[in-house]
Amino acid sequence: MALLVAAFSEVASRFSRAGGTYLYARVAFGRFAGIEMAWLTYLVRLTAAATNANLFIIYLAEFWPRATGPVESRVLLALVLLPLAAVNYRGIRSGVGTSTTFAVAKLVPLLLFVAVGLLAIATGDAGQSPPPVQAGAGTWLQAILLLVFAYGGFESALLPLGEAKDPRRDAPIALFTALGLCAFLYVMVQVVVLAALADPGTSARPLADAAEVILGPFGAGLMAAGALVSVYGYLAAAMVNVPRLTYAMAAEGDLPPRLGAVHPVYRTPHISVMLFAVLVWGLASVGSFIQNLTLSAVSRLLTYGAVCVALIVLRRRERSERRDGFEEAWFRVPAGEVIAVLGLIFSAVLALRMSQRELAVLAGTLAAGVVHWRWMEGRGKA
Question: Are 103 and 182 in contact (CB under 8 A)?
Fold first, then answer.
């Protein structure tokens, strides 16, 4: 993932506008590629948000077991998403404030879990031996594919980058800082879970179950509440970031102007915000946690590979002094083209793990991009 973050950091440091992967592909490869990348990016962000919405319901069942019922879950999903949509409808400041508040709040129970868990390990109160597992190459690749989802999502922070104070400088610093903090926290959490549970893979809520072993029922409730706060924080951030993709596409002329409409009072892309909230609710209602998670992980591999190639293309255009649509990189990756090729290989190998269902969804998404392109050609806009 560090290879991919490095490629994204250099490419992002060439742009000051909103759009993220859509913008990078559009400038590097042309309008058609940009439209296809936009469809893929939107699919990734939709499935990621739906995955976290599903996870919210799973952990809510710790307090109310009926939360996972078919009717109850749909109602609860609406109650979760509507307030976030309303906050972002009223202004980006309130949306960013909500996202930041939850980002800080979700770290507190996780850090407490790690601290208490490491203390329990040190004193000998926790130290389970996991059952032996026969893991072949396929098993490892499947596990890494799921971890791509856990470590991914950083690219969504680049969507509204045009509203940052210094976008070209802020992107690389934020991406590497986030990767380092996530890696540290994930490893520490995993160490504690493996010490507390004999077989974490059989648990639907491993953090809560591990906390119950260490702290009793109070610990299980605390971690379930912490997970709810964490997921809600993710959804709050997604509600800020993703609507800026459709807004950026409309601003570039690749979507109807209505989707780029700015509210006359709140100055937000209000239609894009509400559209995203409705689509997330629909996808979370019809798909399961694992289905949405795997689809999101596989889908983003195509966008990651495209940005790796974009790094090479933009460097070569820079050397030929053809800088149409981008600026000189604020951050340059050492051996950047080698890093980009390695990142591309990593993405391609994991993409081979996709199932027929995921392949069908991706093919349908790309086909929708082609129809979109042809429609624009018919209107004389391509």
Answer: no
Sign of CA dihedral 9, 15, 19, 21: negative
Residue 75: HSE in the Cβ half-sphere, 13 Å Cα cutoff? 7
Query: Which alpha helices (DSSP H) does the chain contain, by range?
Result: 2-12, 21-29, 31-60, 70-90, 92-122, 137-151, 167-196, 206-215, 217-241, 243-251, 270-286, 289-319, 336-351, 356-378
Structural domains for the chain: 2-378 (1.20.1740.10)
pLDDT at residue 263 is higher than 70: no
More confident: 236 or 281: 281
| Structure tokens that stand for 272 in this block | 């894009």
Q: What is the pTM of this model?
A: 0.81
Q: How far is CA 354 from the centre of its chain?
A: 18
pLDDT above 60 (res 311): yes
pLDDT at 95 over 70: no
Residue with the two structure tokens 């983003």? 300
Question: How do residues 121-178 score in pLDDT, each as one tens digit?
Answer: 888 776 666 667 777 888 888 889 889 888 988 888 887 777 677 888 889 999 999 9
pLDDT at 131: 67
- Residues 6 or more apart whose Cβ sits within 8 Å of residue 53: 77, 80, 81, 231, 235, 280, 281, 284
Band (97; pLDDT cuts 50, 70, 90):
low
Best CA proximity match to 147, nearest among 22, 245, 38, 2: 2
Task: Quote the CA–CA distance of 354 and 77 in Å, as a whole number.
Answer: 28
C-beta of residue 126 within 8 angstroms of C-beta of residue 195: yes
Whether the Cβ atoms of residue 152 and residue 343 lie closer than 8 Å to each other:
no
DSSP per-residue string spanning 273-327:
HHHHHHHHHHHHHHS-HHHHHHHHHHHHHHHHHHHHHHHHHHHHHHHTT--TT--
Tokens of 138: 């396929």
Q: Half-sphere exposure (CA, 13 Å, Cβ side) for 278? A: 6
Max distance between CA atoms of the chain, in angstroms, equals 71
> pLDDT by residue (tens digit) across 179-197?
999 999 999 999 999 989 8
Torsion-angle region of 222 (φ positive above 0: left; ψ -120 to 50: alpha; else: beta): alpha
